[in-house]
Amino acid sequence: MPTSPAPKKHAWKFALAALLFALGLAACDSGAPAVHLNIGQPAPGFQTFAVDGAPVHFPAAFLGKPLVIRFWADWCRYCEGEMTAIESVYQRHRGQGLEVLAINSGQDKPAVTAFMKKIGVSYPALLDEQSKIVRRFGVVGLPTTYFVDAGGIVRGKIVGEADEATFERQVVELLK
After folding, report:
1. Structure pTM?
2. Between the chain's N and C termini, which has fewer beta carbons within 10 Å?
3. Which residue range forms the structural domain that includes residue 68?
């Protein structure tokens, strides 16, 4: 019995699966082992620059501080709304030492600067034009957010869309 083609309303699922598969192959072809960063593991170190040109060294500059690391791009459908939701959570908890880093995946400085200006968040945007940090963290889709404790250990992870209440719960848990 012949099979019928998938309905068009589900075509995006197949396209997404193909994209994730291709990204996985690209990571394997890069010569680096596939990364599976899980809760309880140390967050990988990195060095990069903020859009204002300041060098950023993780974990050295953030030891002793709870940290939200957000991976995003301006083409990401959910990133804008979620980054403003993270801003609200950040403003409520920054007095407790919370830091947020918004690491852009694969875009240049002008694109990152324009987007950050448009959404008006106060936490720093970092450049990862070659997506090296993205690969170190094993990010397979955007948005992805890691919650890292003061000792550099991953304590939470959100892959995909989340609301302000979810970010709030993760941050409150991180600050305990």
Report:
1. 0.81
2. N
3. 34-175
